[in-house]
From TrEMBL:
Residues 92-152 form the Sema5A/B-like TSP-1 type domain. It comes from Meganyctiphanes norvegica. PANTHER family: PROPERDIN. It is found in: Secreted. The keyword Isomerase does not apply. It comes from the Eukaryota. This is Sema5A/B-like TSP-1 type 1 domain-containing protein. The keyword Signal applies. Keywords: Disulfide bond, Repeat, Secreted, Signal. Its main location: secreted.
């Protein structure tokens, strides 16, 4: 207030009392809280490997709760799930011998007898993704007369030809997934040896699995004013196979959300 009703004049006294006073008011609406941006929690523990042998996957998660976004605050940036490969070891192999084949006639030029032979093959399986493979070959020979009498005179394992050294250990698989090869060798210790000096077998035949990379940042809003959409993308890849495409990952490689820019004038 001011001392103007009337102003002091001709030596009159000035107004008595304070020219300003204050009171508290409680009728106004509360102020809106400031937005709170989200923050990531710590990573959780790695899950168990998805496969006991061969190449498997482990996963761990984190959550946008430290703090949780509020009042229009920004969501956490980055992946909420982390994935890595595990194991990578060959599954134990199973070996079994096949039944003997029927006797096959090799030579019937002798009028009194015929030479016959039959075979037995070793079958090898390595894990659920492996194709059935073959190992050692056994063979038996017999001489049969035309009156039905047969005499077995030879039991042969062609892979155990004399003159060879012991086989070396199998080499490491040259691929982590998608099918690789292992090799082993032996040396001829005599002037002449029959058979191969090297062998190879398939390994790690399980398919390479695609893994999603992190989402990209959200794009700008598709409109300059009003309602639009924002998009983000992610890439499906694998450190074991650079040629993996998005079809090898489960889920979509793109995502979108609505966005809003100020009213159009």
């Amino acid at each position: 207030r001011t001392c103007t009703n009337p102003e002091p004049k001709n030596g009159g006294r000035v107004c008595v009392g304070q020219e300003r006073t204050e009171i508290y008011c409680h009728q106004l609406p509360p102020c809106s809280a400031l937005p709170v941006d989200g923050g990531w929690s710590q990573w959780g523990y790695w899950s168990e490997c998805s496969d006991k042998c061969g190449l498997g996957m482990q996963r761990r998660q984190r959550f946008c709760t430290n703090p949780t976004p509020k009042k229009g605050g920004a969501q956490c940036v980055g992946c909420d799930e982390d994935i890595k490969t595990c194991n990578g070891l060959d599954c134990p192999e199973t070996r079994k011998m096949s039944p003997w084949t029927q006797w096959l006639t090799l030579d019937s030029s002798d009028r009194n007898s015929v030479l016959q032979r039959r075979f037995q093959l070793e079958c090898i399986a390595r894990g659920k993704y492996s194709h059935l493979q073959t190992g050692n070959l056994q063979q038996e020979d017999r001489l049969c007369t035309y009156d039905g009498r047969c005499t077995e005179f030879a039991h042969i394992n062609p892979s155990d030809s004399s003159g060879w050294s012991e086989w070396s250990d199998w080499s490491s698989c040259d691929e982590m997934c998608g099918g690789g090869q292992q090799f082993r060798r032996r040396t001829c210790t005599q002037q002449k040896c029959y058979g191969d000096s090297s062998q190879q077998k398939l390994c790690n035949e399980h398919p390479c699995r695609g893994v999603w990379a992190c989402w990209s940042e959200w794009s700008s809003c598709s409109v300059s004013c009003g309602s639009g959409v924002q998009q983000r993308t992610r890439h499906c890849g694998s450190s074991q196979n650079p040629f993996i495409d998005a079809n090898d990952c489960i889920g979509s490689h793109s995502d979108q959300q609505p966005c809003y820019v100020e009213h159009c004038s």
